[in-house]
Design goal:
Radius of gyration: 18 Å
Helix content: 25-40%
Number of helices: 9
Shape: globular
Strand content: 25-35%
Largest sheet: 6 strands, mixed
Structural class: alpha/beta
Length: about 250
């Protein structure tokens, strides 16, 4: 499961369960992510992929089990969850930008409110990150003037602004028109090359194949496959995975 060269896992879920009323979405998930690893989480709609990701940074509180991050159990009572989340950047399917703020204000806000750094320092970092994602010219634009791909790249810059140790992506391209998908994936590819630890819930099999060091397949609230991309795609370890791969372009 874990790359021993990277030492202890940066994130670990142990016996993770999550129920919404009588419906159990996660059914005892064990998962570890090594520092510097890129993990792709795939599976059919409704399998629990996004719930798993959201449990890792406690946007959803697990019903049972443990979540460990950087050596500490973070779902214990008394843990400062907001502080934990500054170390886990999160990019959502629907961007979640503040529509009344300009692009640069979207990227500086959390730096000032959470990291308590000066406006000048926050702006400098925001400008560098917007240049990194190819949006330096859009810093004074408002989100409603941007394409979906541009909005998602702003969301990535905003998450990176807090200097996270891990980036979590929850289906970051699924709300985009096809021509906008590649610009977001290109930004994510750059983060991969820089060694960012990433967990990505995605339907983009091409990205999973080329960028991930490991793929986990979630079905009906359980991890039913966990393998490097080459083995996952060429020699699936379960009939369920084979059925899934037969129905999608890879």
């Amino acid at each position: 499961m874990m790359d021993e060269r990277n030492g202890a896992p940066i994130i670990e879920a142990r016996g993770l369960r999550k129920s919404f009323g009588p419906h159990e979405v996660l059914k005892g998930v064990d998962l570890s992510i090594a520092r510097g690893e890129v993990l792709a989480i795939i599976g059919p709609s409704g399998s629990g992929k996004s719930t798993l990701l959201r449990c890792l940074n406690l946007l959803e509180r697990p019903t049972a089990g443990e979540v460990w991050f950087e050596g500490a159990r973070i779902n214990d009572p008394g843990v400062d969850v907001n502080r934990v989340r500054t170390r886990m950047g999160m990019v959502f399917q629907l961007f979640n930008l503040f529509p009344h703020l300009t692009v640069i204000d979207n990227v500086t806000l959390a730096q000032e409110k959470v990291l308590h750094i000066s406006r000048q320092e926050a702006e400098a970092r925001a400008q560098a990150l917007l240049a990194k994602v190819g949006l330096a010219a859009k810093e004074h634009a408002y989100p409603n003037s941007l394409s979906g791909g541009q909005k998602q790249r702003v969301a990535i810059a905003r998450a990176l602004a807090l200097r996270p140790a891990v980036m979590l992506f929850d289906e970051p391209t699924s709300a985009l028109d096809p021509e906008m998908v590649q610009e977001v994936l290109a930004t994510m590819d750059e983060l991969v090359q820089e060694g960012m630890t990433m967990a990505v819930v995605t339907h983009e099999m091409g990205f999973a194949r080329r960028a991930a060091g490991r793929i986990v397949f979630v079905d009906e609230g359980r991890i039913v496959a966990d393998a490097p991309p080459e083995r996952f795609f060429s020699a699936p370890e379960s009939e369920r995975v084979r059925q899934f791969l037969e129905k999608i372009p890879t």
